[in-house]
Design goal:
It is a single chain. By secondary structure, the chain is α/β, with parallel strands linked by helices. The protein folds into two domains: about 45 residues, no CATH class; about 100 residues, P-loop containing nucleotide triphosphate hydrolases (Rossmann fold). The chain contains five helices and three strands; from the N terminus they run ααβαβαβα. The chain has a three-stranded parallel beta sheet, with helices on one face.
């Protein structure tokens, strides 16, 4: 299955295209393909999102290895704070910064409990506004 043709159709009038591979790089799409195949087909830069919790260094390292084995590059990475009381958060971030050969963009904070469930467009807008106010992305110039 070719995703590139469909992506070209969606992106022809777009300023930017962001795709999300929910579930992880090796999550199956069907019996023969996974999100890694999708990433290879569309050829966009990869932003690795690391769920900051116990085991995140191992998980991020395995994901980065799988990305590199497919001859893809990690453009940058983000930490997503899943466990608000994560012990040694700053130490884990520093270890990941040393292990992942890509710029660290920052941390996405834990969402307040009222915004954790996506139920309406209004809730989605609140979540996006919260992230925009707490997380800044600095665009790289070519």
């Amino acid at each position: 299955m070719s995703y590139c043709i469909r992506l070209d159709q969606f992106s022809s009038n777009a300023i930017a295209v962001i795709t999300e591979g929910a579930g992880g790089f090796l999550t199956p799409l069907n019996t023969h393909e996974d999100l890694g195949n999708f990433a290879q087909q569309i050829g966009l830069p990869i932003t690795l999102v690391v769920g900051m919790k116990l085991g995140c260094i191992n998980h991020a390292s395995l994901t980065a290895e799988a990305i590199h084995l497919r001859h893809l590059n990690i453009a940058d990475w983000i930490g997503n704070i899943i466990a608000p009381e994560m012990p040694f958060l700053s130490e884990n971030i520093e270890t990941l910064r040393a292990k992942i050969d890509a710029p660290f963009l920052g941390l996405i904070p834990t969402l307040p409990s009222g915004l954790k469930r996506l139920t309406t467009a209004h809730t989605l807008l609140k979540r996006l506004n919260l992230l925009r106010s707490t997380f800044s992305y600095q665009r790289k110039t070519p």
